[in-house]
Design brief:
CATH superfamily of the largest domain: EAL domain
Radius of gyration: 52 Å
Number of domains: 4
CATH architecture of the largest domain: Alpha-Beta Barrel
Shape: elongated
Strand order of the largest sheet: 13-14-16-17-18-19-20-21
Distance between the termini: 125 Å
Largest sheet: 8 strands, mixed, barrel
CATH topology of the largest domain: TIM Barrel
Strand content: 15-25%
């Protein structure tokens, strides 16, 4: 059972078997004393020779039955195992079964003999079992297993003798060493020749990667050489284990490429650009370097007008420009949607060349029939402090761009101490805005709007910042800052509520003939629910909507024309007076007057001042005022500074004026004094 395994345990009661065999063994041992099983009878022959005869009792047959049953069970186990085991193991069981049959036959034939020669068979059987279990089968199995394992290994294995001749190779090695698909290095040395040379002339073991080629295909192999020596350190042979790592390495390269490169342009992404740039900067401490960032004006509008495909083409062209046309660029990458970063030596930086090449790259991918001026801005940061992260350097270059965005003439800006101070100042203003609103540092000033007779009709609400430390901060210093980051909505809401409070105060004082115009910034349309905010304000302070005039700009309207037209109509239906501010200073057109129903048109006098042909501009202005009159829209002209301008505008039919000629923006108290004491005239 130990030999064939434990498969028969369920059919055998081991304790009962051991008990029966133990009893039989004791009975055999006691036979020498009691002779209850068998004894020998000596018979003398006529020639006085004596021979012995076995005399058995009935108890002996019980012993014999036990032994025969044991033999039968063993034979059955061996034969079952032999015909159910794999072919390799069959001889192991059949050999022992045959020996056992021979022993049984010998035992039967010598049953009556005094000398049981079958006893020698047990020694033979024991030796065979030992040989099969510990020597023959394991060694054969080991050899066969190793051969099968080696043959089917996913790595190449071939063995060399002491002279470097190939003794064995598995299937994988056969493919690598095949003459039809021979691998060779750049010098034409085949893989087998390389391995033999390494084995015969190399020092010690070898473990490393080597590149070979199959035609133009690159194959990367990991090669390990192991020399075999005997107890006296004498070389007996060696073997190579070779693994094809081409696919694995290519996959790793692809994964690394995807992790470090932008999928659209193929340039470094932001993280890898910063990493590589930092390595170069730290490794070239004495070299003067620049970080440049490029930014495309109104890139989002390119996607909106011409589609994402054209937008992608612009970005790809820019990438090719950086790779092919910009001389001296060390490292470049795409670090934002339409932002590219470049590291280059200061000594070879040519502002005009770089700007021109970048501009060509952008313009070359646009449809010739599509009119959209592609303007590329460039921000430059000179690396003076190498301890700050490259990402911060890029941010500073982009900060420089922010100072020229919207300028059609200036394309390159540099980050310097003045800019840094301005940025620091802006950050201070941003951080102090909440306190300014909470503490009432923001003041509402009013600039009178008057009729042709000089009568005050109302005023435009303009914000001033009375800072406790910095003093009076001009609007030009903080309005653009807040417009850029969206905080202008907080300022506007504060001013709207201040205007409503003042209108309520005037209502209580019986001055309901006065109005206040408030400005709505373009960003407010996206950050706030304009309709809800204003309806809640007039209800909260119980004022007439027509006394709170709403000034909107052309820019805010044209971005989402249909949506803004619907909003304006809703506001007008409940009584708000809507004014179109700065008409003539943006992208004004007759379509604007045709499509958008506003109540008042507000024209900036800069319309005349900026014109080279003043007479031509006057005629256009006359046409706009006349057309507005025919459409039933009063016209306010702001920025009026001289009596001559008042006279000209009055002749043209302008209804209302606003400007320094009449009054500067003033505190509410001064406005009220002027309104009361001046007989409602200025």
């Amino acid at each position: 059972m130990e030999y064939v395994g434990s498969e028969f345990n369920e059919f055998v009661n081991r304790k009962l078997m051991l008990l029966v065999l133990t009893a039989d063994t004791i009975s055999l041992a006691l036979n020498n004393v009691f002779g209850h099983l068998f004894h020998l009878n000596g018979i003398r022959m006529s020639d006085n020779e004596i021979y012995y005869e076995l005399a058995v009792t009935h108890f002996f047959y019980i012993h014999y039955f036990i032994i025969m049953m044991l033999v039968a069970f063993c034979l059955a186990s061996l034969l079952y195992r032999a015909f159910h085991a794999p072919l390799f193991y069959r001889s192991k069981y059949l050999l022992i079964a045959v020996i056992m049959v021979v022993i049984v036959v010998m035992n039967v034939l010598t049953f009556k003999s005094a000398i049981d020669i079958s006893i020698m068979g047990y020694a033979v059987e024991a030796i065979c079992i030992y040989y099969c279990v510990f020597i023959f089968t394991p060694q054969r199995l080991l050899q066969k297993t190793l051969l099968l394992v080696a043959q089917d290994m996913s790595v190449a294995l071939f063995v060399l003798d002491i002279e470097g001749k190939r003794l064995y190779n598995n299937k994988c090695a056969e493919q690598l060493l095949s003459r039809d698909h021979a691998l060779a290095d750049r010098e034409g040395t085949t893989l087998e020749e390389w391995c033999r040379h390494q084995y015969l002339y190399g020092a010690g073991e070898f473990n490393g990667e080597q590149t070979f080629y199959r035609g133009i295909e690159e194959v990367i192999l990991k090669i390990q050489l192991q020399r075999m020596v005997d107890g006296n350190k004498q070389l007996q042979g060696g073997y190579f284990v070779i693994q094809d790592r081409t696919e694995e390495i290519n996959k790793l390269k692809e994964e690394r490429y995807q992790a470090t490169h932008d999928s659209l342009t193929g340039l470094y992404n932001k993280e890898y650009f910063c990493e590589e740039a930092e390595k170069y900067i730290n490794g070239h401490a004495q070299e003067e370097l620049l970080i440049l960032c490029t930014d495309i004006r109104e890139f989002k509008m390119i996607n909106d007008l011409f589609g994402a495909k054209v937008g992608d083409s612009v970005l790809v062209n820019c990438a090719r420009m950086l790779e092919d046309q910009v001389n001296g660029a060390l490292i470049y990458g795409r670090i934002g949607n339409d932002i590219f970063g470049v590291l280059m030596p200061k000594a070879i930086y040519d502002e005009e060349h770089f700007a021109n090449e970048a501009q060509k790259a952008f313009a070359s991918c646009m449809d010739k029939n599509a009119f959209f001026p592609l303007i590329n801005y460039i921000g430059v940061y000179e690396i003076t402090d190498r301890t700050i992260p490259v990402s911060v350097m890029c941010d500073r270059a982009r900060m420089a761009i922010a100072t020229i965005k919207g300028d059609y003439h200036k394309r390159v800006a540099y980050y310097d101490d003045v800019l840094r101070e301005n940025i620091r100042y802006e950050q201070e203003l941003i951080s102090e805005l909440d306190d300014a609103i909470r503490e009432g540092q923001l003041k509402m000033y009013l600039q009178p709007q008057v009729s042709t007779e000089g009568k005050i009709l109302g005023g435009e609400a303009l914000v001033r910042w009375q800072h406790p430390v910095k003093g009076m901060i001009a609007p030009i210093a903080f309005i653009p800052v807040f417009e850029k980051n969206g905080l202008i909505s907080d300022v506007d809401k504060y001013m709207w509520e201040s205007a409503c409070k003042q209108l309520r105060k005037w209502k209580d004082e019986g001055k309901e003939d006065l109005y206040i115009s408030v400005n709505i910034s373009p960003r407010d349309f996206y950050l706030l629910n304009i309709y809800q905010v204003f309806t809640e304000l007039v209800n909260k302070y119980d004022i007439a909507p027509q006394n709170l005039k709403l000034e909107i700009t052309e820019t805010a309207v044209v971005i989402d024309l249909q949506r803004q037209m619907e909003l304006i109509e809703r506001l007008r239906r409940i009584g708000f007076v809507v004014e179109m501010d700065d008409f003539g200073s943006g992208y004004s057109s007759l379509n604007m007057l045709k499509d958008i129903h506003v109540d008042v048109l507000k024209i900036d006098m800069a319309f005349l001042r900026k014109a080279e042909d003043e007479e031509r501009s006057k005629k256009i202005l006359q046409m706009i005022i006349s057309l507005s009159g025919q459409l039933g829209m009063p016209v306010i002209t702001e920025g009026v500074e001289t009596a001559e301008q008042v006279e000209i505008l009055t002749e043209m039919g302008c209804d209302m004026f606003q400007g320094y000629y009449f009054a500067k923006p003033m505190e509410v108290e001064k406005f009220e004094e002027l309104y009361l004491e001046g007989g409602k005239h200025v």
